[in-house]
Amino acid sequence: MKTNEKILAVATLLFDSRGIQASGVDTIIAESGVAKATLYKHYPSKNLLVIAYLKSKSDKFYEWLNSQLASKKEDSIEILITLCELVEVWISTPEFHGLPFHIASVEFPDPDHPINQYSVVLAAELQGYLSKIAKTAGARDPVALGQQLTIIFEGAALVDRLSPGTGAAKRAKNAAVALIQSAVK
Known about the structure:
The chain is an all-alpha fold. It has two domains: 1-44, Arc Repressor Mutant, subunit A (Orthogonal Bundle); 54-183, Tetracycline Repressor, domain 2, CATH 1.10.357. It is built from nine helices and no strands. Helix 7 (114-137) packs across helix 8 (142-162).
């Protein structure tokens, strides 16, 4: 494993388990076994390390989702139904710790902070991704459906994080499927 990957892997474990603010650079250095100069060579600031963490989590999510959706017929409602099932599975896994960009935006609430700004970008990417799938599936108003699905999925992620095991992911999937059935031609 490359040094930058090792640093990011340790930071990811700490950010996921303790929170971003609670995981200081000194802890990341101690846990990864690298020198401070080495960490700052790869990530010149903690903000850049946090942004790399958010990007990595987002990229892995989309890679997983795209690999699962690859065999589905894009121009049918099937791809949207499968998407809902996948989101339920993802939120229901024990490894799910909430949406990283939600957590980051709460920990860095200042709209001018670069981490908050990047969280806004990731939220928009999620909505754009869902709208694109809705468009290929034949939704009458894919932008509206994408936003509605985003609201449902983000809400389920938050409820499940705060009250794990209450069935929020399944209920969100059911609500999203009903919405999709009324929105697709």
